[in-house]
Every structure is written in C-alpha cells, then in structure tokens.
Design the sequence.
C-alpha cells in the first residue's frame, strides 16, 4: 500500500479477513461478535493475524501461546479493528 | 486355520484397505489397473516442469484434495496428508471398524513417509528465498512435518493408542506396516491403522532426484534388459490391522493375514544395495512367519528399475529361495504405479493382498527382453493367473535399510 490505509480501509479489510476465516459474508460479521461467536478457533485467529500482517505490512504483537496476554485486544471484532487501526497509524503513518 | 494364536503371538489380519495412486483413487480402480497391466506413468502436470530434465512421473492426476476438504482443513493439509487421509478413509470405511471409547487407547497409528510435506516446503522456500518474503504462514510446520499424516489420521478417527511416523527412505511403509503388525501381535495394541504415503512430485524434489542420475526418461522397466532407471510417484495406502480373534468376533471381512516381518541393514554403501542385506531381510520375514520358502508363490519386488537394484534383488531371491526361486513369480508393480518412496511398500501391500485374494498376480510391464542377471519369472507384461497361498513384499531402501513383509491368503 503506497499511503497508510485510512481507518475506514482498515476496518473494511479486517472485517473481510475475519469473515473469510469464519466462512461468512463480511456483512454478517457484527462488531460485537467474539471469535467464539463466529466459530473462529485459536488456529483460525493465528491465521487471521497472519493475513492482517500481510495485508497492511505491519507487525502484530500477538502471542499465540497466551492470546489473552498479548498486547493486542482480540475480545471482539470491534476491538480487533481498533487495535489494527492503531498499529497501522503507529507503523505506517 | 482358526486358532487365534500363531507361533509368535496373536494372529493379525487385514480388514480394511485404501489407496490413492497414479492408477486411480480407490482400491477397485487401482487393482483393475494392476490386473490389466496399465501404465500410470505420464508427463507430469506440475509448476516449472520446463525446468526439469525428467518430466515423467506417476501422478495421481484425478485426486483433487481441494474437493475433499474444507478451507480450514486445507490450510493445515499438505498433499501428503490429503493422500493419507483419503486412503485411511477408504480403509476404515471398508473395515467397518468402530473406534469405541474403550478401543481408542488400544488403537495404534503407524504411518511411513520418507520425506516431509514437500509441496509446502517448495511453496514456502520459493516465497522466502526466491521472492524475499519475511513473513510466513503460521501453519507451515504442522503441514510439512513428517509426522503430519500420522497425526491427522489419528485425529480423524480418534485413535488414541501408540502413534508414530516411520522414515526409512524407500522402506518406510514396510517398516511402518511391519511395526504395526508386531505391535498388534504382541498385545501392544488391539488394532492398528497403518500404511505409507508420499507426495514428492514437486519441482525441488524432482531436481534433487535428477541429481542422483538414476531416473529414466522413458519408462520404468524393472528386470528388463535395457532398463534405464526409476520413476518417481506419489501415492498412499492405508490398512486396518486387527487380531484374527477380534476380526472374527465382529464378523469383519478378512482380506489377508500378515504373517511375518523381517528387517536388516546392509551397513554397506549409501546408495548401492547388497545381496546379503536383502537376503537377510527376506529370510527374517520367512522365519518370523514360520513360513518355508517353498510356500511362497509370489514376491512383490522392490524392483525400482535401476540396474543395481534389480540385479541385486534377483540374486538375493535366489539365495533365499534356492531352487524354488524358479517356481515363483516375482514382479515389480513400480512398473505401473511408480516409486512412491515412503508410500511404496504400502502401494505394494495393496498388490500383495489383491494377488492373494484374487489369484491374479500383477505383471512387470514395459519389459523388453530378459536380462540374464534377472533370470526369474518376472511376469513380463501380462498378469499371471495363479492361486498362491503365501506372498512376500520387499523394500530395499537407499542407505541399506531393508524391510520385508510376509503374508498369507486367508481362507477362513
């Protein structure tokens, strides 16, 4: 990506990635949904994080061994979107 | 014939069998091809074929893993795992064996594979070395590990007993099946799901094998004068082994009896085979089975089609069987399904079981003329109709690791 993605671009892309992982249409992914709600297990989360890193060329501080301990809030879709928006601003802004 | 105990422990039988190979997906297609002497070797359909000097291989072209698994499964399954799971599915369904909660911890999984998930390695090395990528997919390790097929088969069927992967180059599958057989015979497990697999038809792997200078450009012609080497293959075969007693108790159809397993090491050359090593492994299998050489009607050879192996193997067979060597049939089904490395012994076990059951011994195809160094009945080009009561399958790997399985026809 030539310029840093806008917050809107980031939100759209993150939701697209999570939807792909959950095998859902992006329109079916609610901001309040937890990974559990969407049927995304720990392996699915790791894959989603990889796809997010690839999409924005950023580094996500996600600890697969202890996800709750990461400096990356995965509690629900909205939290993930906000976290990625922050990382993009930090690393790419 | 109905005594559940043999001379060395519980008698072990095959109640399920599954296969994927260049000859087809599923046992019926595969054995029909064996009977007909069909050649599964053809020009391959893989990326970068134009950069390869050797372009033929025995590819399971009609096997499409993408059609058999979900997106999240495919993320974890190298083609090696996909082939193994397909063969395991056919074997388990054919056997009708149910893995109850009680049986699970007594159900073993032993799978042979010589290499790793080579497709995964090729793809990701390409990205990292060629394209300079610094970030790799999180599932590369579970996809490529040698034990992946074993793990995924055990997970798919809830097999919670002893489980491990065996890697002994071209003998991996025979070692796996033999070890599983010994485990059930000795009481270490009640049942075992065992076999071998390989999916080596990738650019990188082919390049490496080209370097050995033992690959043929035209056809695999084991035992024939004018043979020019081996052909690489992909494939998997899986078997369900149970005790005879257990199989009868649940009314299972019994396909064959595994009677003996012999192993040896040449401790010689890293690529050249030895008559002594091969002979000791065959003799070991016969002794383990308490089988006299004269009982054996069919030998499924290692028969790679290289000058060295075929010559050495024939001498070893003469050493072990003596005058009886002239009365048996020895054929190489690698002439049809190619050399599937870690899967070879498993594909060959399918041929063995089929030969015992059907009374049709598979041919060695592409045979041009007899080689005086291989002066045995190699069933050139046409299957032989002959009912045999016992058969032996040879695997003699690079590095001198030999594994031979002896089996008997099961009549009830």
Sequence:
């Amino acid at each position: 990506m030539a310029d840093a993605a806008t917050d809107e671009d980031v939100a759209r892309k993150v939701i697209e990635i999570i939807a792909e992982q959950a095998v859902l249409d992006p329109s079916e992914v609610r901001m309040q949904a937890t990974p559990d709600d969407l049927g995304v297990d720990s392996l699915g989360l790791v894959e989603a994080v990889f796809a997010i890193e690839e999409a924005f060329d950023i580094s996500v501080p996600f600890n697969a061994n202890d996800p709750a301990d990461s400096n990356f809030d995965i509690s629900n879709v909205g939290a993930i979107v906000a976290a990625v928006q922050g990382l993009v601003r930090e690393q790419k802004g | 014939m109905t005594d559940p105990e043999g001379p060395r422990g519980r008698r072990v039988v095959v109640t399920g069998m599954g296969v994927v190979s260049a000859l087809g997906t599923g046992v019926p297609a595969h054995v029909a091809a064996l009977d007909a002497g069909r050649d599964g070797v053809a020009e391959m359909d893989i990326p970068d074929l134009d950069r390869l000097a050797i372009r033929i291989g025995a590819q399971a072209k009609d096997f499409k893993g993408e059609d058999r698994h979900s997106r999240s499964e495919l993320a974890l399954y190298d083609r090696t795992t996909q082939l193994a799971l397909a063969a395991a599915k056919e074997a388990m369904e054919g056997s009708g064996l149910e893995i109850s909660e009680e049986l699970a911890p007594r159900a073993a999984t032993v799978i042979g594979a010589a290499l790793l998930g080579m497709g995964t390695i090729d793809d990701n090395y390409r990205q990292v070395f060629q394209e300079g990528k610094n970030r790799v997919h999180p599932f590369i390790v579970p996809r490529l590990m040698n034990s992946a097929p074993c793990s995924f088969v055990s997970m798919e069927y809830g097999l919670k007993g002893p489980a491990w992967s065996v890697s002994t180059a071209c003998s991996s599958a025979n070692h796996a099946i033999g070890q599983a057989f010994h485990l059930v015979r000795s009481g270490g497990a009640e049942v075992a799901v065992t076999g071998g697999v390989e999916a080596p038809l990738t650019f990188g792997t082919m390049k490496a094998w080209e370097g050995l200078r033992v690959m043929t450009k035209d056809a695999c012609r084991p035992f024939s004068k004018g043979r020019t080497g081996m052909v690489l293959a992909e494939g998997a075969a899986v078997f369900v082994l149970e005790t005879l007693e257990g199989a009868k108790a649940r009314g299972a159809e019994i396909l064959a009896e595994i009677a003996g397993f012999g192993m040896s090491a040449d401790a010689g050359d890293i690529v050249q085979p030895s008559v002594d090593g091969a002979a000791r492994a065959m003799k070991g299998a016969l002794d383990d089975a308490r089988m006299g050489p004269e009982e054996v009607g069919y030998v499924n050879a290692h028969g790679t089609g290289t000058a060295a192996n075929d010559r050495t193997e024939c001498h070893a067979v003469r050493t072990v069987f003596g005058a009886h060597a002239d009365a048996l049939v020895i054929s190489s089904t690698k002439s049809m399904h190619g050399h599937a490395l870690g899967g070879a012994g498993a594909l060959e076990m399918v041929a063995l079981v089929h030969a015992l059951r059907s009374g049709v011994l598979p041919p060695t195809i592409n045979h041009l003329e007899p080689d005086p160094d291989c002066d045995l009945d190699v069933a050139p080009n046409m299957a032989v109709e002959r009912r045999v009561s016992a058969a032996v399958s040879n695997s003699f790997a690079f590095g001198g690791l030999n594994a031979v399985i002896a089996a008997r026809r099961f009549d009830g």
Notes: The mean pLDDT of chain A is 90. Chain A touches chain B at residues 21, 23, 43-44, 46-47, 49-50, 53-54, 64 (CB under 8 Å). DSSP finds four helices and no strands in chain A.
